[in-house]
Each structure stands twice: as C-alpha cells, then as structure tokens.
Amino acid sequence: MSAGSVALVVTEDIEVPSWDLYELSIPATVFGKPQPDLADPWYDLRLCGTGDRSPDSPGSPGVPGFGLRTPYGLEDLVGADTVIVPSVPDPCVEEGVPLPTRLIEALRRAYEAGARMVSLCTGAFALAEAGLLDGRRATAHWMHTVQLAERYPKVRVDDSGLYVDDGDVLTSAGMTAGLDLCLHLVRRDLGAHVANQLARRMVVPAHRPGGQAQFIDLSVPATDDEGLAPVLEWAQARLDQPITIEDLARRAAVSPRTFYRRLRQATGTTPLRWLLNQRLGRAQSLLESTDLPVERIAQLSGLGTANNLRHHFLKHIGIPPADYRRAFPRQSPEGKVTPATKAPA
Fold first, then answer.
1. What pLDDT, on a 0 to 100 scale, did the predictor assign at position 341?
2. Which range has highest mean pLDDT (215-219, 264-268, 296-300)?
3. Which residues lie closer than 8 Å to 250 by C-beta, 6 or more apart?
4. Who has greater pLDDT, 244 or 330?
5. Are 189 and 3 in contact (CB under 8 A)?
6. CATH fold of the domain at 226-330
7. In the CATH scheme, what is the code of domain 5-201?
8. Of 23-37, 38-52, 108-122, where does mean pLDDT reach its minimum?
9. Read out DSSP for 45-63?
10. Annotated domain spans of the chain
C-alpha cells in the first residue's frame, strides 16, 4: 500500500468564490496534512495553478471572492500519481464558457502518463471536456448532472450516487460527497484502518458507499390545492396503519380517480408512491434518532417487515438500513458520540 503524490488543480487565474473553497479544502485537508502515526510517508500534495492570467479567462463578476497563487503549475500534473479537479468556475458550467485549453491538455497528458484522475462536484466538466469520461459512468452534483449529460452525450451520467469509482477515473457529487470520495481513495491506497482513523479525526462517518443516494426528495411540493393538505397530514399521522387510495379519497370527499388526478397534479407523483416516500422518510428519521430494531422501525413506518424495509432502502436510497444508521452517530447523555444503534439491524 502506498500514498503517492496528489496534484490538486487550483484555478488561480480567476477570482475564486468563497463557497468554492469547500471542495478545494477537502482534498487539501485529507491529503495535505501529514498523519505520521497512520502512514509514513503520507501523501505528497502539490497545489497546481492553472496560471492563465489572460484578460478573457473566465471570471465571476459581482461574486465575492479572492485570488489564489500556487507554487506549482499545470506542467506538474504530469508525473503525479493522482490528479484531482475539485471544481470549475461557475460560468463554465452555467454559461458554457470554455475551460482553459492549457488545463484540458494538461489533464490529458497526466492521464496518458498513468495518473489516476479524480473530480469533485463540477470538476467532472473538466474531465469530460478532456474526453476522459467518454464511455464511462460518472457523476457530479445533482444540480448539474442534466447539464453534464446534455453537453457531453458520450458520458454515462449517473445522478443517483455519492461517487463513482471507475478504476483509474473517479468522480463525485458535490459538497460532502467529495469528502466521501477522498476517504474512499485513502481506503484504496492505505487500507480501511487508516481511512477509518482519519475519518474519526475529521469527525465524519467512516464510510458511505458510493451507491448511496445523493438526495432523496420525500417532501410534498408546494401546491395551490389547499384541500389536499388536511388529507395528507391525516395520512402522515397514520403511516403505521394500512392506508389505501380509497381511504384518502374518502377523507377528501372525492372519488379515487379524482383524488389520484389531484395528487398527481399537486406533487408530481402517485398516491402509492407518495405514501412510500413518507414511510421511507419516517424510517430514515427513526434510524437517525433511535436505537429501535429495524423490525420495529419497519412496523412504525408502515413498511411491515424488516425485509421489506431493506428492499425499499436498497431500491430507493441505495444502501441497507444498517449502513444508513451507522452514518448518524448519536450523542450519549454524557456527551460522548456513540453508534446510533445497539440492536441488530
């Protein structure tokens, strides 16, 4: 097992919005801070600036930010064991402003030289522009996956997972999913023990599988149909009980066909799918906040059995209930962080 060198791309030639520092700071923290008691030597991190200071380089007018300067340039991407693109400027994503040619060419050279290529959030646009995602499954922040798929039709865009490991090319969704991918790289390079200890020091879950869903929308969209609200509130208070579309229609004083149509117009989903989403949401809340066994959570959420709960979690959220629960350690009365469950899951 070896740590190796990591080249982190920094768009030093533009004004960096303050919120973009998050994706930049994640790999800088994971790979840049030595951990001699875990692995020695640790990673050799190099911040590599794009260095394009031309007047027409993409910027972010009106966006509060500041510039960055780095000791390494794009030529230093070649020879690195891992190259990470944490994000690209917003105009390159939202407005189609071309990425710097020097950056794209440097990414291609690094890959051809044998580097493992990684993107966090919108960094996938840079890898896609370099042709490194053609024919591969890849992801990005769910808010940008449609743009990624439209702009690069050769990429098999997957908007469902936290990150995608395709061997020598890896991509992640935005924000904390980038941290999940970085810890996954440490796990690949240095083993589970080192990755788990590092996650513990960073006070984050030790491991969230890449297949875990980025975002599960279990809410009810806003609607002008105020007559539905009391019916839906009634159902939410009785999720542990059998509920049919006839029950809901009766509460709304309409026919089942009319209720189906009105709910579909208001929420964009069917009554049965709406009920399933609410029950999954209830199960998520109980897994996050209680020590109840999975069998009991299945009953309280209206999903019946532990097997049925596991089936729906795997299908709609991407991981089993036990893995979901482990991502939410709870605070003990003494103030110590403890696992979220003591019961078998």
1. 39
2. 296-300
3. none
4. 244
5. yes
6. Arc Repressor Mutant, subunit A (1.10.10)
7. 3.40.50.880
8. 38-52
9. EEEEE-----TTS---TT-
10. 5-201, 226-330
